Each structure stands twice: as structure tokens, then as C-alpha cells.
What does this fold into?
Amino acid sequence: EIVLTQSPATLSLSPGEGATLSCRASQSVSSYLAWYQQKPGQAPRLLIYDASSGATGIPARFSGSGSGTDFTLTISSLEPEDFAVYYCQQRYNWPLTFGGGTKVEI
Amino acid sequence: EVQLVESGGGLVKPGGSLRLSCAASGFTFSSYSINWVRQAPGKGLEWVSSISGGSSYIWYSDSVKGRFTISRDNAKNSLYLQMNNLRAEDTAMFYCARSVDMTTYYFDYWGQGTLVTVSS
It folds into this structure.
């Protein structure tokens, strides 16, 4: 099973600041990695797929990078609605796995 | 508009059974793989099971293999999860989620979830 480790667990920032979230895989997942955003009481939302491709309707301030074992989600300038929990997920191998999440808080 | 609506959750005793359903609309159901993802209270996301469009390919996480059965009825645009021998650690919100396409297992649309509580 591929283990995804996200860091940091919590990121405390202010609106307007940039955010950098990390996801590290226990083995290479090539570029087969996605990022999701989840707000309290809501289902997750797909942000980025294949490491760097933006999902439909996702604002340009969200970007993804990386390949192999190290991946980054960058939020260029935090809007109030961006404070949420972010998860990475790999589809390189079965079982599909998620990271433990990074909470971006004000 | 793509919609996924789960139902069937509830309170069940350890060792009991439950059948979850997911009603889909707004897309050609048979053309997409569909998945179950769960989230224990206050915890992260955990993939549970996936089924291809024609039901030819089915996968389970090790934690549910042998206890849960995923199925679909394309004529009814519905997905199911039969859960047997439930344990306390199965307590979670269960989400139905559509794959991006038949073979790409990222999840682009999600339902609002149905809560399963396993407790005596």
C-alpha cells in the first residue's frame, strides 16, 4: 500500500498570504496524484488532478506541482473561503489511498 | 447537473448488516466508474470500494474485503454497498463519488454522504 504523508498537519495563515502544502508518497506514484478541499459539513471537492491539472471551475490561485514522491499544492493568495482541510490522493496503485490531510486555518 | 444522493445509513449493532444506495442523475451512469469513500468522525478520508461501468472490475480496501459487496444497476442509475458483519470501526460518513472517467480513479463529483453508526 502506498502511504501518503501530508505536512504540515496544520497551517495557520491570514487572508492574502500564500500557502504551500506538501504530500510525500512512500513510493513513486508518477504524476497520478490529486488534491481535494473539504470544508466542515461538506463533501470533498476535487481541485487538482494528475499533479498539476486544475479541475473544472477551480480558481487559478490553486496550483499543483511535483512528480514521483514529492508533491506540492500552492494557494497563491488565500481567500476567506480557502480555509479548509486539504487531502492528497494517489491512483497509481490499488488500494487507492489518501493522505491524512492538512488543515489551513486562520 | 450531476447529482449523487446516498441513502440507507443508520444505527446498527456490531455484527449487523446495512445496505447503502446511491442514486445518480445528470450523466450517463454506465460510462463511469463509481466509488465509495468513507470518513470516520473527525478523521480523514478512506477509500472503500470501486466498481467499473459494466461491473467487470471491482476493488475493495483490505479493511472491508470479505464483508462489503459493491454493486450497481445501470438501468436504475444506482450504486449499492452491502455491508455485513459491521464493526464499531466502520462508523463513518459514507460518500458515493464518481470517477473522472471509466479508468481514471480521481473523484470529481461527490454525494453529501450517509452516516453509518455501529454501536450496541
Summary: Chain B touches chain A through 21 residues (CB under 8 Å). The radius of gyration of chain B is 13 Å. The CA atoms of residues 9 and 116 of chain B lie 5 Å apart. The first strand of chain B starts at residue 3 and ends at 7.
